[in-house]
Design goal:
- This protein is of the alpha/beta class.
- Helix content is about 45%, strand content about 10%.
- It has 14 helices and eight strands.
- It has helices at about 5-10, 30-45, 65-75, 90-105, 120-135, 145-150, 155-160, 175-185, 200-205, 220-230, 235-245, 245-250, 260-270, 290-295; strands at about 15-20, 50, 85, 110-115, 140-145, 165-170, 190-195, 210-215.
- Strands 1-2-3-4-5-6-7-8 form an eight-stranded parallel beta barrel, surrounded by seven helices.
- Helix 4 (about 90-105) links the parallel strand 3 (about 85) and strand 4.
- The longest helix has 15 residues, at about 65-75.
- The chain is globular.
- About 50% of the residues are buried.
Amino acid sequence: MTDAYQQIKSTLKGVMTALVTPMKLDGSVDYDTLARLIDWQIDEGINALVAVGTTGESATLAMDEHIDVIRFFVKQVAGRVPVIAGTGANSTHEAIALTAAAKEAGADFALLVVPYYNKPTQEGMYRHFKAIAEAVDIPQILYNVPGRTVADLSEETVSRLADIDNIVAIKDATGDLERGISLIRRVGERLVVLSGDDPTALELIKYGSKGDISVTSNIAPKAMSQAFELALEGRFDEACQIHDTVVHLHRDLFIESSPQPVKYALNKMGKIDKGIRLPMVWLSEQYHETIDNALKKAGLL
């Protein structure tokens, strides 16, 4: 791996918020609110921001909107923290186009989800990620989330991809701690291993993970960033004391499909409007009290 890629890998640490895409009631992107969210996240100590990931409703943004949001992130962040652009797709051609646009916009990393719905084989996934890496010279993060994609990127395939220079990290959102540990042991010298599962992310730090691409940090960026900073310093008792104040959010923010609960929570906190795009809908009324109580317990209401 080149020195340039080794250096940029070192910036992937701590808590990276997979930020929601705030929307107006008509479903259009609310850029004024997005600017405020970005500034708040950075002020609260977050280590990086993910633009248009799963939590950012990438599946329902048109391609031109998707690129516009990435450009806006880069401009608003203005180099204060790394910008990780969600550019994955189940079409390799589309993923290459989005990744090229992210590079042109000035994003620091591209986050590439395993192709969803069409269920590629391991060889198909290997060739997919290899093609994107060869087409666009930007540091790339693999993203394995079989709970959403159905297809599951195997450790063997990750190991093959780890030999490609500009594939620098993997976001493991399997929610399987033992599997995460095994992945670190197998590729941790070559790839930065990040968690994408808030409930197990802090524990995975003990085994060599460098951080967490988080949903919970949308609403609790300070507590999450402080806890993970302490954990990375080996101060786990102190980290757990802070983490315990928000740990219940990891469960409650997935009481319905994300980002429905986290958007409701941010609205309740006065951070965003009630905009969301079909087929996602506003959080079911039966769960409002659960999220309200979770926010109060965390000291966020």
